[in-house]
Known about the structure:
Layout (H helix, E strand, L loop, with lengths): L2 E6 L2 E6 L3 E2 L4 H13 L4 E5 L5 E2 L1 H14 L4 E5 L3 H9 L2 H4 L1 E3 L2 H9 L6
Parallel strand pairs: 2-4, 3-5, 4-6, 6-7
Antiparallel strand pairs: 1-2
Helix pairs in contact: 1-2
Amino acid sequence: MQIESSKIDDVLVVMPLEKQIDASSAVDFKEKMLRWINDGNNKIVLNLSQVDFVDSSGLGAILSNLKRLGTDGDLYVCCIKEAVMNLFKLTRMNRILKIFSSQDEAVKVLAASNIKG
């Protein structure tokens, strides 16, 4: 899976460049995210602006990464397209994840959090 990443202060911004996070790409996505987490990135913004579809495997990968961060970090999600947001609402992921409409807003709030980067 192609994923673009950049650092803004102590926040890692991750943007999957694929249209789908599904059974065929979820394992690769999860592994790449875990590498970044294991490298000490504990403030992560997941920009889903390029993603049109997420299936249960993709949801599982996102949740797994959130759990891996535990209380030592956080994962914010931004720029979610309507179809993906509908799935998040249906599965109540919108109650678990901190969701922002823009990347700038997500980075600003996460950078200001009490989590040590």
